[in-house]
Design a protein that fits this description.
The chain is of the alpha/beta class. The protein folds into two domains: 172 residues, Spore Coat Polysaccharide Biosynthesis Protein SpsA, Chain A (Alpha-Beta Complex), CATH 3.90.550.10; 102 residues, no CATH class. It is 38% helix and 24% strand. Helix 5 packs parallel to helix 8 and helix 7 packs antiparallel against helix 8. This is Glycosyltransferase 2-like domain-containing protein. InterPro entries: Glyco_trans_2-like, Nucleotide-diphossugar_trans.
Amino acid sequence: MKLPISVIILTYNEELNIGNCLKSVADWANEIIIVDSFSADKTLEIAKKHTNKIAQRTFVNQAEQFNWALDNLEIKNEWILRLDADEYLTEELKKEIADNLMTPNVVKADINGFYIKRRVYFMGRFIKYGGYYPAWFLRLFRKGKARSEERKMDEHLVLLEGKAERLKNDFIDDNKKNLSWFIQKHNNYASREAEELSRKTKESQKYGNGQGKGPDAGRRWLKDNFYYRLPLFCRAYLYFCYRYFIRLGFLDGKEGLIFHFLQGFWYRFLVDAKIYESKKYK
C-alpha cells in the first residue's frame, strides 16, 4: 500500500536524474507532483511514466517555485516531501518514514516536520568528509506548516509552527550531469549569492527568523556572522584549508579533491570576485 504522502519535485532538463528520483518514490507515495520549468529534453517524457500531475511554470528561483507549488497546486495529503530531481530515497529511509507516519501515536500532534540527512555523491563517490556529512534538511512536513525561505540562494525549508524531529536514515544526492554542468551551475550560484550579499537582503528575508530553529542553524550563523566578516578572497583560502585538512576532506580521494577544491575554494573565491566586481563598477 502506498503512503499518503505528496512528493513535490522541481525539474528543468533533468533527463539524466529524474528516473532514479521517481523510481524511488513511485511505488511508495500515493501522489507525485512535478513542477517543471519548460524542460527541453526528455524530462517530461520520463516523468509521465510515473505521474500525470505535472505543472509548468517559468523558473525564477527555487524558493519562489516551491512556494508557488504549495500555494497554487492541489495537494491531497497532510504530509509533503520535497525532493530535488537529482535526489532519491533509500529503502531504509522509506521504511523509517512509513513506520513513523503509519503507526498510531508515534508522531505527536505538535510534530510538524522531520529533518533528514543528505548523503552527497560526486563522480560516483560518497563525499563523507570535509564537514559535508551529515547535513540535515527539513524535507518532510505537514501541509501548511512549512515554507521555503525567500532567498535567491541557499534557501531552506523552515517550520512556521510546531516542532520537528530527526530521522536516522539518509536521502541520496547523486547528480549524473558532467563537470562542465557543475561548473556552470556554481557560476550561476555565485552570481546570485554575490547579488544577495551586495544588497544585504538577508536582513529582510521573509520567514528567515525560522532558520535559527533547525539543525542547519549553526552553519548559517557561522556563515553570516563569521565567514563573511573575514577579508575578501582570504576567506575562501581559509575555508578550503579548514575543510580539506582540518575536517579531513583529503580522505575523500581524488573525487573529493576535485569536489572540495571546486565547491570549497573556487566557488567561494568566485563569489568574492563577483562581490568585488559589483563594488568596483557600481
